[in-house]
Amino acid sequence: MSVLEIKRELAKLPAEERRELTAFLVSLRHEESEGFKERMSSMIDDKNPENWMSLEDFDKKSKRS
User: Which of 21, 30, 32, 57 could in theory staple to 53 by disulfide, Cβ–Cβ 3.0 to 4.6 A?
Assistant: First the structure.
């Protein structure tokens, strides 16, 4: 299966499944980053909506740390 075919299939997924896939891809990209899992766990466990961030903001922040 080509990347183009994968993209076409992914575009058909419901929004929730695309969000789940996006989170998975981000985690793969940062898997080797030291402290990434701890930072991710802390952010996921945060129940205060004021501290939530977009995927783009998360990506920027995780690259700086």
Answer: 57
Mean pLDDT of 23-39: 77
Assign 42 a pLDDT band (cuts: 50, 70, 90): confident
* pLDDT score recorded for residue 64: 59
- Return the axis-axis angle of helices 36-45 and 15-30, rounded to nearest 10°: 150
Residue with tokens 């891809």: 25
DSSP structure string for the chain: --HHHHHHHHHTS-HHHHHHHHHHHHHHHHTTSTTHHHHHHHHHH---GGG---HHHHHHHHHH-
pTM over the 0.70 mark? no
